[in-house]
Amino acid sequence: MKVQPDERAVILGQYILEHRTTVRSAAKKFGISKSTVHKDVSCRLRCEDPILYKKVRDILEINKQERHIRGGMATKRKYELISSGKKS
After folding, report:
1. N or C: which terminal CB in the chain sees fewer CB atoms within 10 Å?
2. For residue 88, is pLDDT > 60?
3. Where are the beta strands (DSSP E) in the chain?
4. Residue 88 domain flag
5. At residue 1, does pLDDT exceed 50?
């Protein structure tokens, strides 16, 4: 049975809140696109559960602020693998 978008928004919001995860990680876990997760937790969740929406929004804001750090670490790992002669 397919979950309705409003229900899915709440499920995604709860998952992001419980695991303090990113939109990308939630999308991978549920097998849906990042765009769908973002739409659900930024638009649909606001109408469906405003309290949960505010909590999720705070987590997503933290993720946004840390995004450049995660990207830098990924690049560092990539070049460490290249310099050691290993493949990813």
Report:
1. N
2. no
3. none
4. no
5. no
